[in-house]
Amino acid sequence: MNAARISLAIILLVTAAGIFSQWVAVHPHNLPSGNALEAPSPNHWLGTDDLGIDLWAQICHGAGVSVLVGVSAALLAGIGGSLIGMLAGYLGGIADRITMRMTDMMIILPDLPTMIVLGAFFGPGLINIILVLALFSWTGTARIIRSRILSMKQEQYIAAAQSYGAGFVHLAKTHFIPGVLPIALASIIRLTGRAIVAEASLSFLGLGDPTSKSWGLILNHAINFKGIYFMDCWKWWIMSPLVAILILVGAFAILARENETSAVSAFQK
Amino acid sequence: MREIRTTLSAISMILIHLMIFFISPENALADSRKSPVVINLAGGDYGYPTPFSHYPRGPGIYKMFLIFDSLLEKGENGHIPWLAEKWDISGDGRVYTFHLKKNVQWHDGAPMTAADVKFSFEYFSRHPAVSDDLNIDGKSFIQKIHVTDTHTVSIHVEKPFAPCLGKIGRSRIIPKHVWEAVSDPRTFDDPKAVIGCGPYVLKAYNREQGAYQFAAFPGYWGPKPRVDVIQFVPVSDEILAFHAGEIDLTGVAPDLIKKYADNPDYQIRQNPGFWGYRLILNLEKRPEFRDKTLRQALATAIDRNELVQKVARGAAIPASAGYLPRDHVWYNSRVREYDFDTDRAKALLQGKTMSVDLLISNTRDELRIAELMKISLARAGIHVTVKSVDMKTRDAAIRNSDYEMVLNGHGGWGMDADLLRTVYAGGKSVNQSPFSDAIPGYSHPKINDLCERQHVEMDEIRRRQMIFELQELIAEGIPQIPLYNTTGHVVYRPARYNGWRYMFDHHDMTHNKLSYLTPAK
User: Fold this and answer.
1) Which alpha helices (DSSP H) does B238-358 contain, by range?
2) Among candidates B304, B405, B300, which has minimal Cα distance to B345?
3) Nearest to B382 by CA among B407, B346, B406, B347
4) Spatial separation of the C-alpha atoms in residues B105 and A212, rounded to whole Å
5) B236 CA to chain A: closest CA distance, Å?
6) Strand partners, B304
7) Cα A70 to Cα A48: distance, rounded to the nearest angstrom
8) Considering A135, B189, B324, B453, which has the largest number of Cβ atoms within 10 A of its Cβ?
9) Which of A50, A124, A207 lies closest to B310 in CB terms?
10) Which of B53, B86, B85 minimizes the C-alpha distance to B67?
11) Which residue on chain A is closest to B242 by alpha carbon?
12) CA A214 – CA A220 distance, rounded (Å)
């Protein structure tokens, strides 16, 4: 549980750094505040990029973008997937079969290449990235929730409620949602980590918002800088977004694992 | 005994002669020549290299030029005789008679004759090539073509005009026996489509990998190819690929020049500034741009020196507001300059603000230019929304005038000054190359008039004067904002290959066909 607490603290810290980036960083994230490619110093903690923009400020601002994209995409996919899963499990029949074939189809499609195509098609932009990520992430949640609902439907208390005329909305509110919440939550946390990596990948490939200053984009600019491997600046310019992604995604992964373990053990009790 | 001695001495003499012959320097050279010279360069897909289906940018155009020759070629100081060994121009400037080289053959062995030249020009007037040079304002300037004999052809033009010889001379010659049966050349991708009479034959092309392989044509009529095989190979990072020996020449960032400067294994060359970025304004989509003061405010609000220092890392020169770059033979240094001054830009705007979309391609340099321009324009009250798309989508948007403001980086800035007419006087060009992209909705009577007059002015001194005046007018009205011209460095290993040469008006040595051929004595 300690690991979960530490992970949560890291996530909260990073989120806070993102929200309060303009206070956490002395320099602006979008304006040059020094010379190009300055090495880390007390004035510029992580140095500057080729335009002379402070990297610490960009990393802090990028934290906000990453968390925003990650959490929004995961919430959208998690809630959407849960709802679809609940409906499919509850209704059964054709609705269930259609939903399951759709999830099969989405599972077969390779995520990243299709996301690249969609990202290129819809154009760069944070909202588009969130929508594309959500579109590819709801299926796993929907399948898990559906199977949980299918097993819940066999429970006698559900059958009893139904015999008293309880409809879907009532059943969902009183039984289904409380029953699937721990699984949905675990799935949302897992999705957040995945979405952050996917956003970084899309931005890194140049399909993100070109001015968003997300970690993927910082990495994209750094790696595309001609001859960076023969210069010293890779040490701060490439490493800072890379380490930031690793820390945040690692924290989400540990939190998801811990949360899943506790959800499973609570379920088994 | 004497006989034996005589025989022995004769044999030893023969042996000595044979040894001398085999170890002579000439022969050693001949031996070294036997191993084929293979040059690898960074690849990328620029289309199938026929005159009708290559991508209309330098790397596409010049790959096609390796296969297809023209009547004239670009040398280091001007046009040089090529398929035409000499030419005469009639007194009234309307008839160009070309005397063709003999013994020129197509890659399939058929002889190249004046009939092919006639056919090529007639075919191009029906089906303009991607890099078309024969249409002016949407109409072919060639009136008729007369074949005098197998090696003499006369081209009659409607009216004399200054850049006529260059335009005819640069047009590719295609084989009549291949193309006469082709009704839609854009879709003709048969192996026969790449039969030319140039020094190289296309051996392999892989669209997905952006890989090309050209081999020297053994029956080439002209200077002997020094490079036996030219390969364009896929690479992810050019500098790393150069170090690994995967490619033989690469552009090098100014920060890395020191690494190569004092090393005799490497040779560094600096490109002339004939490649550049310009910010094109769409006066049709945003009529506000019709206001000259607004355009001047835009030009004043952009810090071009900052772009040069930060994006090009100093390897560029701020572009002239009169468009012709500083390295151009007809550059006018007295044109109005727009020094960066936010306060002055604000004063010109008189408190007005505006929001505008800026379309760019998603290359690193364009993203960085857009980012810096966004910052400096915002200070003056012009709020820019950057939209980045891939290069081909951006190029298509420019052709369809589907943008408010677009950033475009391309070559061709060193060409004949008549390019001012296509860019500023709304001359309709069927040439798809980005250097022909005009400014939508811009028309200035005086500029239009001067563009037309310089076009038909045959006296070079008077024409030069007109071009100088034109640059001053253009700089004053600033209907588009030239940003900077790159003067980047390239590095190569001279021991591996040392034949690299520039054309008189072009920035890239690898684009020069003569780089791969034996130099004329």
Assistant:
1) 238-243, 257-261, 292-301, 304-310, 342-349
2) B300
3) B346
4) 57
5) 10
6) none
7) 26
8) B324
9) A50
10) B53
11) A227
12) 10
Could you tell me the two tokens for A259?
């949360």
Q: Just give the CATH number of A2-16+55-268.
A: 1.10.3720.10
Question: What is the C-alpha to C-alpha distance for residues B339 and A132, in angstroms, rounded to an integer?
Answer: 44
pLDDT digits (tens, 9 = 90+) for A37-93: 999 999 999 999 999 999 999 999 999 988 998 899 999 999 999 999 999 999 988
Are A189 and A259 a contacting pair, CB within 8 Å? Answer: yes
Contacts A226 to B, Cβ<8 Å: 238-239, 251-253, 256
Residue A51 near chain B (CB below 8 Å): yes
Tokens of B239: 């500098």
- What number does CATH give the domain B275-486? 3.10.105.10
Q: Where are the alpha helices (DSSP H) in B342-490?
A: 342-349, 364-380, 391-399, 419-424, 445-456, 460-477
DSSP state of A229: G
Helix (H), strand (E) at residue A152: helix A138-153
Tokens linked to B135: 């249409």
Q: How far apart are CA A126 and CA A133, in angstroms?
A: 11
Q: For residue A100, give the amino acid letter.
A: M
> For A3-17, A101-115, A209-223, B419-433, which range has the lowest pLDDT when averaged over its residues?
B419-433
Successive 10-residue mean pLDDT values, chain B, 521 residues: 51 49 42 77 96 95 97 94 96 95 96 97 94 86 95 95 95 97 95 97 96 97 96 92 95 91 94 97 96 97 97 96 96 96 96 94 92 95 91 92 96 94 78 83 94 94 97 97 97 96 96 94 68
Could you tell me which residues are beta bridge partners of residue B484? B277, B318
DSSP string over B204-248:
EEETTTTEEEEEE-TT-SSSPBS-SEEEEE--S-HHHHHHTTS-S
Is the CATH code 1.10.238.10 the one for domain B36-67+198-271+488-521?
no
- What is the rounded distance in angstroms from the CA atom of residue B229 to the CA atom of residue B200? 8
Residue extents of the structural domains in chain A: 2-16+55-268
Q: What is the CATH number of domain B69-184?
A: 3.90.76.10
Residue A236 to residue A224: CA distance in whole angstroms:
15
Question: Does residue B259 sit at the A interface (CB-CB below 8 Å)?
Answer: yes
Q: Which of B236, B243, B342, B371 to substitute to test the interface with A, most A CBs within 10 Å?
A: B371
How far is residue B359's CA from residue B285's CA, in Å, rounded to a whole number? 13
d(CA B33, CA B197): 24
